[in-house]
Amino acid sequence: MLVAEARKAGHETVIVTGWAEDPTVSPVPLITIPSVTFPLYREYRMPLFGYRAFKKELDAFNPDVLHVHSPDGSAWAARKYAKQTGIPAVITHHTDFPKYLQYYHISFLKPLVWWYLRLLYNRMSAVTTPSSVTAEDLARHGIRSPIAQTWGIDFSVFDPKRKSAEWRKKVAGAGNIVLCVCRLTWEKDLRTLAAAYMKLRAERDDFVMVVAGDGPARAELEKLMPGAMFLGRLDWKMLAEVYASSDIFLSPSTTETFGNVVIEAMASGCVPVAANEGGPKDIVLEGKTGFLTKPRDAEDSYEKTKLLLDNSKKRAAMRTAGLKHAQTFTWSNVFSSLLVLYQRLR
Hints:
Elements: H1 2-8, E1 15-17, E2 30-32, E3 35-37, E4 45-47, H2 52-61, E5 66-68, H3 73-85, E6 89-92, H4 97-100, H5 110-121, E7 126-129, H6 132-140, E8 147-148, H7 165-172, E9 176-181, H8 190-203, E10 207-212, H9 218-224, E11 229-232, H10 236-245, E12 248-251, H11 260-267, E13 271-275, H12 280-283, E14 291-293, H13 298-310, H14 312-326, H15 331-345
Parallel strand pairs: 1-2, 5-6, 6-7, 7-8, 9-10, 9-12, 10-11, 12-13, 13-14
Antiparallel strand pairs: 3-4
Helix pairs in contact: 8-13, 11-14
């Protein structure tokens, strides 16, 4: 979306990446560099250190600024290239890596990870992150002057008009649909999701729980959530239809730096019940556009979801307020803010 906005404004872009699922869909030139599989999450490939793999092509492109989106080998390569060419390098902190460690039982590495992030981020021209909550956390851990820069929504995709009465009837009949969309990995607090669902399921049958997404936790999660419908990974058209056709969006994750799925749900007319930690704190207006729950508290998630299932008027009011609030998250505003940053650094 940032590339699309840049092109609209007449700016040229090239993407350097360690892996692209389908390079043919890129709207701009794509430079693929060597990468290796990440042991803890095999779907992710880590680019290797060094800039020789992209230097020749990037020299020919002659960039004015580099914007890095992952603190891996490519970030160090970009930083070295930027230093040698005298251009600024901006990095965005998308993922709360230190929080992830506890889900893989290696929390003892947290000080080392923060040391690494400080070492890298404080050598960049600027550091951005998608929420004020995450910016404050970075600052507390010694990252100098992090900038909160929210993300946006593609309103041509996420739209309540994509609601499918046929899909709703097929899935839930006349009942309600509670939806969760995420990568199915344990750092998304899926055990909280399962516990809240089982408590709801034990006392009522007027809803269906739908889970969209895939990942290494799926098989175990299906066992923890009998009766729930697992859709797997969806293309954007089907995902947008599922959002718009659901009633309540249950997101227990406490590791979001922004919470794309929360704002996507809101823009689609689905009322969010999200954990009061990380990026969603900047997105959800408590009691107006949705509910924020106590982090990792299945009981609170259950109570807030139950309240919305029981009160259709309140849900409708939150839906209307949420749709209005979501309209402020435009990609044109995001790119305009970033462009000001780029120009200031040059």
